[in-house]
Design a protein that fits this description.
Largest sheet: 4 strands, mixed
Number of helices: 16
CATH superfamily of the largest domain: Nucleoside phosphorylase/phosphoribosyltransferase catalytic domain
Bound molecules: uracil
GO biological process, one term: pyrimidine nucleoside metabolic process
Protein name: Thymidine phosphorylase
InterPro entries: Glycosyl_Trfase_fam3, Glycosyl_Trfase_fam3_N_dom, Glycosyl_Trfase_fam3_N_dom_sf, Nuc_phospho_transferase, PYNP-like_C_sf, PYNP_C, Pyrmidine_PPas_bac/euk, Pyrmidine_PPase_CS
Strand content: 15-25%
Family: Belongs to the thymidine/pyrimidine-nucleoside phosphorylase family.
GO cellular component, one term: cytosol
Number of strands: 13
Shape: globular
Amino acid sequence: MDAIDVIRTKRDGGALSAEQIDWVIDAYTRGAVAEEQMSALAMAILLNGMERSEVARWTEAMIASGERMEWSALDRPTTDKHSTGGVGDKITLPLAPLVAACGAAVPQLSGRGLGHTGGTLDKLESIPGWRAALSPAEMLDVLRGTGAVVCAAGSGLAPADRKLYALRDVTGTVESIPLIASSIMSKKIAEGTGALVLDVKVGSGAFMKTVERARELAETMVAIGTDHGLKTVALLTAMDRPLGRAVGNALEVAESVEVLAGGGPADVVELTVTLAREMLSAAGIAGPDPADALRDGSAMDVWRRMISAQGGDPDAPLPAAPETHVVTAPATGTLTRLDAYGVGVAAWRLGAGRARKEDPVSFGAGVTCHAAPGEHVTAGQPLLTLHADDPDRFDRALAALDGAVEIDGPSGLLPLVIDRVT
Ligand code: URA
């Protein structure tokens, strides 16, 4: 087989055969297909798309490029959630211990943030001592002891995706639904979870800017999961404004702990409980109500044990940025827009995110929102607090917020949960 023939097939609008897909993924992982050839193929896929059978085979080949985890040693059903990423999306932090407190096991492999969206591992690493890298044996130990584990994927899990995602990132080929769907699902299927709930974000702060694109991505991922015998459900949820009030690593951990203590912003609580119900139902667990486990402290109990089991101190003070800058409301009225993308880019420029994979993040940096869209604000009241290690960062963050705030403008917020795809 020849890489040029595979590229030509897709370039000319054809469907790749199973043999072509298996060969190209294997050869690329081994280094026998050059980066420039894979980049041409990724662009041809982005432009010409893939049929359902091609996406399924592509996903299969990426899973087969590495190891597959399995959790049959556990005495509880496994269930997991994956979010396509957004601004202030800290839901995994309260959700994993909550679902464990209700009787399921949650083996979650998470990622780091890149660009304006945050990453779960960066958030958890703001807890002093907490460790993201666990061996499969350590993962099993934490799962047995606490019911939930959130850690980094090892290099042996879907290595074809690891290589291809890095290539897509620098060749303008991230925004392809078949490539995004196969990338996410290959990792989740290789992770070995028994059930999966996908939180597909929609809006300015998300990959998918429209409900139509998000629905197409959700349907593609649900089809891949179903074809693999994995019980998969997707929710389309709003990312036109930030989720909750905190955006930034330690700020989001603090907000998650508030939710686990029975408080926290209403949207974070609602989405956490909704996703928990979906995860439990997908795992075949009926009975426990996640809202009770937030109220009675049992989810908090699992959180504390889960953090301690990975070396973290749940009682240690979280890092705080030394510099702050307050943005005030420009007028009195109803806050009709607080744009997720603008706030996400501001938090990123303040140091909460990274521009390149190897960059460090600031744990204390980010944005606190003092009002949410739909609320009444008074001219001059604090609207946002920017947090940074270095005051030189404020100007560029403020530039990102230009046009992000609107008072008494047209209303048109997306509902928090837009749709459910099965
Ligand atoms: N997240 C992934 O893991 N892969 C993609 O392609 C996009 C988002």
